[in-house]
């Protein structure tokens, strides 16, 4: 399943929890713990169920997976904000919910820096810039040269307006000094059809979305957005390698509790989450879905979120984009 469509779901899946002996009265009273998924199931729900089962023993309670889809993840975010801060409810939030949505929606009804308590970032992923397999460009500089002779073709597809691929396109446009117009699709599937057919000259989505089409010769990935080449695409250089050092972007998924959740409880969730994602079978599931497992402390996730807000805010503002 395509990462941009499944990632938020699958990631929420990765929410794990655990209870230290000293906090059992706070967290493990026998009632179920909830993993909120801000996006509807798919294969991610399978991962969530896998993790929920793995968490039963350390939590000493049942763990249920509860889907809270809607409004680009904001329904799930509000459910987390309004949950009782006793450690019984946690949520997986992809980067878009705490970082991008507050910049693009006028009234999100939550402040990610004050309404959520970070637990851990569990994985990160990068993006790819691709053209149709029939496109004459064999590298990103060749695509830039082609654009200069085909100015009416200066547009690119993204899986959604207001997404990281959308704003990565804004970075690309600035780096190459060419106005690029985004064509926003309702998901990767429709975008991929137009990309393969050449209706849209280029597309940006996650590496996991595009890699199988690239391997099958249906599209050609010209660049990736990390600081180093992707292990699954060693033949494809990064934007940085091709002379565009400012074109870098990573997505991530983190786990959060409601604000005011006791620190001891946060620490227990964090420790159990790290143990879960480092288990070989869980780690492989995440790799298969395009995630590099990371694992951070709550403080590290808070710093990552703050850094990304500071980085993307001027880019979003300069784009002039508003989702409502």
What can you see in these coordinates?
- The chain has 324 residues and is α/β, with parallel strands linked by helices.
- It has 2 domains: 3-124 and 250-319, 3-Layer(aba) Sandwich (D-Maltodextrin-Binding Protein, domain 2), CATH 3.40.190.150; 126-224, 3-Layer(aba) Sandwich (D-Maltodextrin-Binding Protein, domain 2), CATH 3.40.190.10.
- It is 44% helix and 19% strand.
- The chain contains 13 helices and 10 strands.
- The chain has helices at 3-12, 24-27, 43-59, 74-81, 96-104, 112-115, 140-149, 164-176, 188-197, 207-215, 263-278, 280-288, 298-319; strands at 33-37, 63-67, 89-94, 116-132, 155-158, 181-184, 203-206, 219-224, 250-258, 292-293.
- Strands 1, 2, 3, 4, 7, 8, 9 and 10 form an 8-stranded mixed β-sheet that branches.
- β5 (155-158), α8 and β6 form a beta-alpha-beta unit.
- α1 (3-12) runs parallel beside α3 and α5 (96-104) runs parallel beside α13.
- It is globular and about 65 Å long.
Concise structural overview:
The protein has 324 residues and is an alpha/beta fold. The protein is 44% helix and 19% strand.
Rg over CA atoms: 20 Å
Secondary structure: helix percent: 40-55%
Strand count? 10
Q: Examine the coordinates and then state which fold CATH places here, giving the name of the CATH topology of the largest domain.
A: D-Maltodextrin-Binding Protein, domain 2
- The percentage of residues in β strands lies in 15-25%
**What's the CATH class label of the largest domain?**
Alpha Beta
User: Topology as H/E string?
Assistant: HHEHEHEHHEHEHEHEHEEHHEH
Low-pLDDT sequence parts: 1-28
């Amino acid at each position: 399943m395509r990462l941009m469509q499944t990632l938020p779901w699958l990631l929420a899946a990765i929410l794990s929890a655990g209870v230290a002996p000293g906090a059992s009265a706070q967290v493990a009273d026998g009632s179920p713990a909830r993993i909120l998924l801000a996006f509807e199931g798919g294969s991610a729900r399978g991962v969530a169920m896998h993790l929920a089962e793995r968490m039963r023993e350390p939590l000493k309670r049942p763990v249920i997976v509860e889907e809270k889809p809607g409004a680009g993840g904001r329904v799930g975010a509000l459910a987390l904000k309004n949950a009782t801060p006793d450690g019984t409810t946690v949520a997986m939030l992809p980067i878009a919910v705490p970082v991008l949505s507050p910049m693009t929606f006028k009234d999100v009804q939550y402040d990610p820096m004050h309404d959520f308590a970070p637990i851990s970032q569990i994985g990160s992923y990068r993006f790819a810039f691709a053209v149709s397999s029939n496109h004459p460009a064999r590298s990103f500089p060749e695509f830039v040269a082609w654009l200069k002779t085909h100015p009416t073709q200066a547009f690119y597809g993204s899986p959604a307006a207001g997404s990281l691929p959308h704003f990565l396109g804004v970075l690309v446009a600035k780096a190459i000094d060419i106005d690029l117009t985004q064509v926003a699709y309702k998901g990767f599937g429709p975008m991929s059809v137009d990309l393969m057919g050449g209706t849209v000259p280029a597309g940006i989505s996650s590496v996991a979305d595009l890699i199988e089409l690239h391997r099958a010769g249906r599209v050609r990935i010209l660049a990736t957005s990390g600081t180093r080449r992707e292990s699954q695409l060693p033949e494809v250089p990064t934007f940085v390698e091709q002379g565009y050092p400012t074109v870098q972007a990573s997505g991530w998924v983190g786990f959060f509790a409601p604000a005011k959740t006791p620190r001891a409880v946060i620490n227990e969730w964090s420790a159990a989450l790290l143990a879960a994602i480092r288990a070989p079978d869980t780690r492989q599931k995440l790799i298969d879905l395009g995630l590099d497992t990371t694992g951070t402390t709550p403080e590290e996730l808070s710093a990552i979120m703050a850094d990304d807000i500071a980085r993307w805010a001027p880019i979003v503002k300069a784009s002039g984009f508003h989702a409502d």
